[in-house]
Amino acid sequence: MTNPPPVAEPAHLAAFWAEPDVPAPAGAAPSLAVGELHDFLFRLFATCFYTPECSVLAFMFILRLLSFHPHLRITPRNCKRLLLCGVMVAQKNHDDAPLRNVDFATAWGHVLPGERPVSPERINAMEHTLLNGLGFDLYVPQDQYAACVAELRGVVRSCVEINQ
Description:
Helix 1 (34-48) crosses helix 4. This protein has helices at residues 34-48, 53-68, 79-94, 101-111, 120-133, 142-163. It is mostly helical. The protein starts with 33 loop residues before the first helix and ends with a helix.
């Protein structure tokens, strides 16, 4: 079985591109290590002081987005922005004292100082795109949340065993 040919990123998801006016050419995605994503989320958590549940909810929102929009591809160009936006929406929906979009734009600069800054307007556009992509459905049943946590714990245990 052969892999399908690479597809260019859909234009309506431009808010998540590294540069909104420059779509990625098909198949031109550099690799991104899992450790790099872990470090990104850890620094975001340490900077924004959101509850740990928001990370799980963000993961669930991104999975839901992917199930609603199978054409969406997570690439090194958009994954950190998707994570940031997922955490932001989860934090606003779950925590008692939600941060503002400008706070997440500022956090981006602290978490990724070498990256191009993300303006509050881009954060707004990403939030709008994510919420529209989810159909504004942010409800997560308790049993689905518990199943996701159990699965994530299993993944972490497997990674720890592999690295020992």
